[in-house]
Amino acid sequence: MILISDAALFYTNLCLLTLVIIGICYASRLFYLKKQKQAQIAFPRKAMHNNHSRCREIAILAKNSKDLEVLNLVNNFVDTMREHGSYAYHFTHYWADARDPQRVVTELFQKQFHGIYVVGQNLTFLAKQVSLAQDKKIPIIFSNLLHASWEEEQEKLPVTHLTGVSTGNDWRYRIKIFLALKPSMRAVLLPTFSSGHLPSVQKAATILQNYGVTTYVMRVHTEDELLNTLQDYADKIDSVIRVRDLISVETSAAIARTCSEYGITFFSSFVHDVQYGAAIAMSTVNQPFGQLAAEKMIAVLEEHKSPIDIPVTNISGQYPYEVHCNQLAMKAQGIDPSRIIVVGLQHAVEVAAVVSSDSPNHHGA
Hints:
six-stranded parallel β-sheet; Rossmann fold; alpha/beta; seven-stranded mixed β-sheet; 12 helices; elongated; 20% strand; 13 strands
């Protein structure tokens, strides 16, 4: 029998307790390091996954990268998406002014996008056509499209993946202002690129004819053809009216030069055209096309609504018209600049951006 002293027993128990404490501490340390390592690995992966899954790719399709009205509209769309959207958005621009629009749209649909924003009527209908041909029904939100043309297009070939923001042409009021500015108007050329615009242009022609004005409605297919048509009719007309077709600023300037050379008045539906030599431009301003289109895109991508369940917003008649004038061009194109004051007083229309010969913005004839 072995006897253990009280002191020895105490030290033995102390050593055992120390070993137990060391073991517990070591195990706790291993557990902590393991959890920290898991957290360091898992958290970045989770964050990266969330960023990736919440990022949306948007294509923007427009015809003219130099058109101030188009640029403002596109910028408003992008700003609204970034300000009010919950997801991260990346935008890819497709400008169809320098190349064949068909090729540009086809190239767009070869890429992967969550949504497409289209500016203008011709490009909207072309995007619709290509999407159906390739069976890629990506949500398409459009703007700056005639409401009557949209309704007619939907009747011919209904689709469920398009919606957007439309407008109208109050030709009766605009022609009244044009005639007040140029009471001597006798013959007008009305060229258009789009078959969708033809009903609206024909309506304008009918109104002009009721005032005793001869009209020439011409469907053209290229900007060169438009300029050649203007040259061909230069001896027959005293005015040309640019409708809502999108053309390059170079073509606008070329129209203005031809008009000044022949004394033909260039009336435009785009207010910035006075900077390139149009005598008169009349349009509604500050229409929130981009903002409203962005709200619809957010509803589709973040609220998971189908475009067919989001009604097209027709904003025609909701915003006042402005008349923009280029005084130097008016003189060259057969209008007395004093008519500006008369029209402003008689018709209570706002006249803005009056450009004189010493204006730095004048690029005209």
